[in-house]
Design brief:
- The complex is a heterodimer of chains A (670) and B (271).
- Chain A has 670 residues and is of the alpha+beta class.
- Chain A has four domains: 235 residues, no CATH class; 97 residues; 141 residues, 3-Layer(aba) Sandwich (Rossmann fold); 90 residues, Thrombin, subunit H (Beta Barrel).
- Chain A contains 13 helices and 27 strands.
- In chain A, strand 7 and strand 8 form a beta hairpin.
- Chain A is globular.
- The N terminus of chain A is likely disordered.
- Chain B is α+β, with helices and mostly antiparallel strands.
- Chain B has two domains: 148 residues, Rossmann fold; 93 residues, FlgT, C-terminal domain (Thrombin, subunit H, Beta Barrel), CATH 2.40.10.
- Helices cover 33% and strands 33% of the residues of chain B.
- In chain B, the strands form two sheets. In chain B, strands 1, 2, 3, 4, 5 and 6 form a six-stranded mixed β-sheet that branches.
- In chain B, helix 2 packs parallel to helix 5.
- About 10% of the residues of chain B have low confidence.
- Classes of the chains: A alpha+beta (670), B alpha+beta (271).
Chain lengths: 670, 271
């Protein structure tokens, strides 16, 4: 083998350096962060080993470049994307959990050149396949500027005149989406309406004011990204031990957060659950869990002590810990236990098509409504799977990396196909304003005069011109009269109608269709409606028309999305199994536990019917027959299960359960 | 002239028989596509109006349960999703069955004349290209009484009413099998099980006439004759396949028909 000489080696090295500088930068970065993290690590943190790189304990994620609608400046989208990335953990305590997508692209470009290199081989094996893809979408940004003004306390004419500088109000709508690479399922979708302003900014230049307001927006995005990451981790934290108690109630507890390395900077509340039985029925998995309280990560939280303040449920938490049972801490609406891919695939899956606005509305409003609806549906992970096709190319790219990596965690080919497509068109949008009027009574002293003049009494003082008032009262609007002698002046009571604010109504009507991918049939078609009403007082700092419009649209989108869960269950709701009998009475079954809770879209207002399924042969054809056995009313709803009171058919239900009849529950009215 | 009129009558009857036979033989819902409604004006505001009317007609068809309404607006999206599910990434995942798309047997069209205010609704068979059902509704009154804008709530109400009339005529052509008696004694039959439910357009409180068929020989031709036995009311719709009927008139005749082991049918009674 001929060794390279100095004259040939140096140019080749320079050439190599110039070609692969991105890779070298990344490699150096990798080394530096690994090294720096291996020093004084607080207890409870995972170990960044050469093999694990944290992947065994925390999900890995690639952050895709942010996207925004045309009206949002690119720089804002980019900065928001950076904040999103930071919020997911990059550059803080878990550098490998999130890897910038751009870096992967660079690495992929380099790899072919490094085919024979040992470094490349080892690097390729070490490349972390991402289990999730994170993306930030900037759907709307509205900037409203309160102009420079001079203000003075109206009640005190001697008060100093203050110059109020421009205040920038920012209204943003962003979506945070975390998609599972293996299944293409949208596991978290948060649609956020963010509001910030530059009111507290001390900067003198308008540009600096604007930046200060935007920075507040970015901070909010970062915190929400962190929350999303914690939601993804789900109920992984457990309360380890009781640190302080008062009157047999837990006051401070220590939490094992071995998987949660990066908590949002703001106070974080976790719900505390006591886990119960696990059930598997017809392939579906259910984890019964009862909420027993909540704990708060206070400001000044220390990683070494991991102390959380108990907000409520202290008694039960203390009892459990003393009995050696560890309660689970949960954030958000994630399932309490991991579900198998087979169980996940049993749920109906939905692809939400882009909302149209052929006649009414605007692209931004359509986008806002769509994102809000997706966000609302994503909080019901046991109702349906939301599939994401917007990032499908990126998913495929990640899978290619998975197949080459030694950490191949994703199971190939388990992508969830959509059963249904939701198609929607904004049909109507209305926005109406009307003044809020109030009638007030005013006592007006008559004008004092020193000389007794017989006088011609003037007509009552008209109300101020600024109010659209009509004046009534004894003396109001009376023509001038002549009095024989000056009587003692009496105070006059004037009724005045004044405008105290604005009442704003906004309404939306969306023609939505749920279509079966298999057959192309329309499952349901509905006019989904949403409305919002809000009073804006005159004295509040929301008199600006644009500000009101923004606030109303935000409220409208939220109301619209929250009201539609029941509509979605029609035609796609899964039968709910009876998991067990909870209580018996003299007649028969009194209470039952059902598989399906708040995460499956079950609400306390619903009524259930217990159905028995039999078969009838009619004209040589076997037809399914369903007869109602009993009716149920809700008692308590848990995340994955619920308890129901039997209102009708206690004995019949008992008989069917004893006879092992094929029975299940369905929501009445669907 | 007489000859032409006779031919028209015969061909009309044949078509009706063919259509009735087609429906009676069906077990599943009839599939229909609601085509975009059109108008004969250049006014853009009428576009939205037609979208509203089309939506109302579509929802009436869906609500009846008798029709399977197919979508063609999102066909590209559906096709792209089906194609995607054929790829390797879905091998062990969840996929929909391919090649099961439902073709429309009928097409509903709507056309409005701005001059007369009449919306003409037509259901045409895709197979034969023959108009099988139709109706008209006058939208003009609601159209102009509202003044500014389009009184969509009022006018789509008219479309719904017109569609309901078309539907009731359609449903009256179907006949369903009576499975067995559910509540009976020696003298009468109170309740029966009907092999038709929500997917056949059966709704609670509908009135049905129960009958059996016999044959009569007329001029060497065997013609089917319906013998009415009783009138019954839908007490409960169990699911897509079955309903419970309660006797309204003729419980003794019903008892007799069951005793004679007649094959009983029911059809929706029209006003």
């Amino acid at each position: 083998m001929q060794l390279p000489t100095t004259s040939t080696f140096l140019p080749r090295l320079t050439n190599f350096m110039s070609l692969h500088r991105s890779f070298l930068f990344f490699f150096l970065h990798l080394s530096v962060v690994t090294f720096s993290q291996s020093g004084n690590r607080p207890p409870g943190f995972i170990t960044y080993g050469a093999d694990a790189l944290g992947r065994k304990n925390q999900p890995s994620m690639a952050v895709l470049p942010p996207v925004g609608v045309e009206s949002v400046p690119t720089s804002v989208v980019q900065n928001a994307g950076e904040a999103f990335h930071k919020g997911l953990g990059f550059g803080t305590s878990m550098p490998f959990a999130t890897i910038k997508k751009e870096k992967f692209d660079e690495v992929r470009l380099i790899l072919p050149y490094m085919e024979k290199s040992e470094i490349a081989k080892s690097y390729r094996n070490e490349a972390i396949p991402c289990e999730y893809l994170g993306r930030l979408e900037f759907n709307r940004l509205k900037t409203i500027v309160e102009k420079d003004s001079i203000r003075q306390d109206p009640k005190n004419p001697k008060s100093p005149i203050v110059r109020v500088k421009n205040v920038y109000h920012f209204f943003a709508n962003v979506s945070i989406t975390l998609t599972e690479v293996a299944t293409s399922k949208m596991v978290i979708n948060e649609n956020l309406h963010l509001v910030s302003n530059s009111r507290e900014s001390n900067a003198n230049a308008p540009a600096a004011d604007s930046i200060a307001g935007l920075n507040k927006l970015y901070d909010q995005i970062r915190n929400h990204a962190s929350r999303s990451y914690l939601q993804l981790l789900g109920g992984v934290g457990t309360i380890d031990s009781l640190v302080e108690e008062k009157k047999e109630k837990a006051k401070y507890v220590r939490v094992d957060l071995s998987k949660i390395l990066n908590l949002p900077s703001l106070g974080t509340t976790f719900e505390v659950y006591e886990l119960g039985e696990k059930f598997t029925k017809d392939g579906m998995e259910y984890q019964h869990a009862e909420k027993i309280g909540s704990i708060l990560r206070e400001d000044g939280y220390r990683y070494d002590t991991r102390l959380f303040k108990v907000l409520d449920g202290g008694k039960r938490i203390a009892e459990m810990l003393k009995a050696g049972i560890k309660p689970v801490c949960v954030m958000g609406s994630f399932p309490l236990s991991a579900k198998s891919p087979e169980a996940q695939a049993l749920l109906p899956s939905l692809l939400v098509d882009t909302f149209q606005y052929k006649v009414k509305g605007s692209p931004e409003l359509a986008k806002m409504l769509q994102e809000k609806l997706i966000s609302s549906l994503s909080t019901k992970p046991q109702m349906l799977n939301l599939v994401n096709r917007k990032v499908y190319d990126d998913i495929e790219t990640e899978r290619a990396i998975h197949s080459k990596s030694k950490y191949d965690g994703a199971q190939a080919g388990i992508t969830i196909g959509a059963d249904y497509v939701l198609s929607a068109d904004i049909q109507d949008y209305s926005y109406k304003k009307e003044p809020i009027k109030k009638t007030i009574e005013k006592t007006v002293e008559p004008p004092k005069s020193t000389t007794p003049t017989p006088a011609t009494k003037p007509a009552a003082t008209p109300p101020p011109a600024s109010t659209d008032s009509k004046t009534r009262g004894e003396s109001a609007a009376k023509p001038a009269t002549t009095t024989p002698a000056p009587a003692a002046p009496k105070p006059q009571v004037i009724k005045e109608t004044v405008i105290t604010g604005t009442k704003v109504n906004a309404g939306i009507r969306v023609d939505a269709k749920l279509i079966s991918v298999k057959t192309g049939e329309i499952i349901w078609s509905k006019l989904l409606e949403g409305g919002a009403e809000k009073d804006f007082p005159l004295d509040a700092k929301v008199s600006d028309k644009q500000l009101q419009l923004e606030m109303m649209n935000t409220l409208l989108a939220t109301n619209f999305a929250n009201g539609q869960v029941f509509a979605f269950l029609q035609g796609i709701a899964r039968p709910l199994p009876i998991l067990k009998v909870v209580e018996l009475n003299k007649k028969g079954v009194d209470k039952v536990m059902i598989g399906g809770g708040s995460l499956a879209g079950i609400s306390p207002f619903m009524a259930l019917q217990v159905i028995e399924e039999t078969t009838e042969v009619v004209d040589n054809q076997s037809l399914k027959r369903e007869t109602v056995v009993a009716e149920l009313r809700s008692d308590t709803i848990f995340p994955e299960t619920s308890i129901w009171n039997v209102k009708k058919g206690e004995a019949e239900l008992q008989a069917k359960l004893d006879g092992n009849a094929k029975i299940y529950c369905k929501i009445k009215g669907l | 002239m007489r000859h032409t009129s006779f031919l028209l009558k015969v061909s009309g009857s044949l078509l009706l028989l063919l259509f009735t036979g087609l429906l009676s033989a069906q077990i599943t819902k009839s599939s229909i596509w609601v085509a975009p409604f059109s108008h004969d004006t250049l006014g853009k505001k009428y576009d939205q109006y037609m979208v509203d009317c089309r939506g109302a007609a579509l929802r009436t068809l869906l609500a009846s349960g008798r029709f399977s309404v197919v979508d063609r607006d999102a066909i590209k999206e559906l096709e792209s999703e089906r194609q995607l599910q054929k790829s390797e990434s879905f091998i062990d995942g969840k996929v929909v069955e391919q090649g099961r798309a439902v073709g429309a047997e009928f097409i509903l069209t709507g056309k409005m004349s701005a001059k007369t205010g009449l919306l003409s609704l037509e259901i045409t068979s895709v197979e034969t290209n023959v108009k099988v059902e139709g109706g008209e509704c006058n939208l003009k009154e609601g159209f102009f009484s509202g003044g500014v804008g389009l009184p969509s709530g009022y006018t789509t109400g008219k479309v719904r009413k017109s569609m309901s009339e078309i539907l009731s005529r359609w449903l009256a052509r179907d006949r369903y099998t009576i499975v067995r008696a559910l509540e009976e004694d020696e003298k009468s039959v109170e309740k029966v099980l009907l092999a038709a439910g929500s997917t056949r357009g059966i709704r609670k409180d509908m009135v049905l006439e129960v009958f059996y068929t016999s044959s009569e020989i007329v001029d060497s031709l065997e013609i089917e004759r319906d013998i009415q036995v009783a009138e019954m009311k839908v007490e409960k719709v169990e699911n897509g396949n079955f309903s419970v009927l309660k006797e309204k008139k003729g419980k003794k005749e019903l008892r007799l028909a069951f005793d004679e082991k007649r094959k009983l049918y029911a059809r929706i009674k029209t006003k």
